[in-house]
Write a structure and sequence with these properties.
Elements: E1 2-7, H1 13-21, E2 27-28, E3 34-40, H2 45-53, E4 57-59, E5 62-68, H3 79-89, E6 94-101, H4 111-142, H5 151-163, H6 172-176, E7 191-197, E8 212-217, H7 219-225, H8 230-239, H9 246-258, E9 260-266, E10 270-277, H10 282-289, H11 291-295, E11 297-304, H12 305-311, H13 314-319, E12 324-326, E13 336-342
Parallel strand pairs: 1-5, 1-6, 4-10, 6-7, 7-8
Antiparallel strand pairs: 2-3, 3-5, 9-10, 11-12, 11-13
Helix pairs in contact: 1-7, 4-5
Bound molecules: guanosine-5'-diphosphate and magnesium ion.
Magnesium ion binds at residues 13-14, 69.
């Protein structure tokens, strides 16, 4: 899972990136326009799972964050950089949009204005792509070329939506359609708005674009807290009225906007969390571990984490008849502990 951080200059994108990643192992792209870092998703279930299965190690799910140094609005005369920015954002699964909610050199925060402006920029970026493609398609059609079925119709629908000021993710069919996957549409990606508040600022009520989630983070405070021990940091958080560290909160929200859940596996080797889209079948879920397991899928032995913990051990769960046998069409639930049976 990859998440791209965007926002106006000085909104605190790099600060949020640092709060999330500690900037450890941040990899800078050769263009200098973006860098990325991998974050392990904190999951309190994994140590418990490790205990139950006496696993040698824990392997948490991972999220990759990308911080882009270049700003969308500096579009003019910077076509090449814009292309590079779009290339960097193309593979991301969601956008994390940072708006400034702290005073900057005497400038009052205007999170609502920033949000509106960025929302419009995302739509504009998409509209340019749609119009360019439509123009090309229409030329080709005049020359007698037959376009892919429905491509013209879907692009025209996208255009109408964008011109109405609506993001492409507001249209379920457009969002899911494979024909549109090849374009770098930005408003089609799930969007999480991060209100980056100063120490003394409170989060205002924002009117949000369609299908958007919002979360408040005190970015600089979180970065400062990285220097402290977890216990000391906790005391400061309480003082500032921040209920929980930014990282787990943000990651949980990211999972929500992406509609992801985790299934778990446990064994001698490792206790591990596997992120999958909600609604994934057991056979497809098996494929996230290995394509052979998906292909040779026989059945899944399933018990939910909470039930397993209550029973104390896998053997006890089996004896109590609580480990279910599920077929390939079973819809995997968050926290399902699964052992896949398969033949190669
Ligand atoms: N007071 C305050 N300043 C912040 C906060 N977050 C960022 N800043 C400052 O705002 C400036 C821009 O931050 P930066 O993360 O570089 O923004 P970027 O241009 O979006 O990457 C820096 O001087 C930061 O120290 C915050 O939460 N509170
Ligand atoms: Mg920056």
């Amino acid at each position: 899972m990859k998440i791209g951080i965007i926002g106006l200059p000085q909104s605190g994108k790099s600060t949020i990136f640092k709060a999330l990643t500690g900037e450890f192992a941040a990899h800078e792209d050769s263009s200098g326009l973006w860098r990325q870092a991998v974050v392990k998703v904190p999951d309190e279930r994994l140590p418990k799972l490790q205990e139950i299965f006496s696993s040698r190690k824990i392997v948490p799910a991972q999220v990759e964050y990308i911080d882009v140094a270049f700003d969308l609005r500096e579009r003019e005369g910077r076509r090449r950089e814009l292309e590079q920015l779009l290339t960097a954002l193309k593979p991301v699964d969601a956008l994390l949009l940072v708006v400034r909610n702290f005073e900057l050199a005497g400038l009052a925060p205007e999170p609502q204005r920033e949000l509106k402006q960025l929302h419009e920029e995302l739509l504009f970026s998409d509209l340019v792509i749609v119009e360019r493609r439509l123009e090309r398609l229409e030329k080709e059609i005049k020359k007698g070329k037959v376009p892919k079925e429905r491509e013209l119709e879907l692009l025209k629908r996208a255009k109408v939506l964008l011109e109405e000021g609506k993001p492409l993710r507001a249209d379920e069919e457009l969002k899911a359609h494979p024909l549109l996957k090849g374009y770098t549409f930005l408003s089609i990606k799930p969007l999480l708005v991060v209100v980056n508040s100063g120490e003394d600022n409170t989060c205002p009520e924002l009117s949000l674009p369609l299908a958007t989630e919002v979360i408040e983070v005190k970015g600089r405070l979180e970065v400062d807290l990285l220097e402290l021990s977890p216990e000391e940091a906790e005391i400061f958080r309480q003082e500032w009225g921040v209920s929980e560290a930014a990282l787990p909160r943000l990651i949980r929200k990211s999972f929500e906007v992406l509609d992801l859940i985790c299934f778990l596996t446990g064994g001698e080797k490792e206790a591990r969390a596997w992120p999958i889209p909600r609604g994934t079948t057991a056979q497809k879920a098996a494929g996230t571990i290995h394509s052979d397991i998906e292909r040779g899928f026989i059945r899944a032995e399933v018990i939910n984490f909470n039930e397993l913990v209550a029973l104390g051990s896998y053997q006890k769960a089996q004896k109590a008849g609580k480990v279910r046998l599920e077929g390939k069409d079973y819809i995997v639930q968050d926290g399902d502990v699964i052992i896949f049976r398969f033949k190669v």
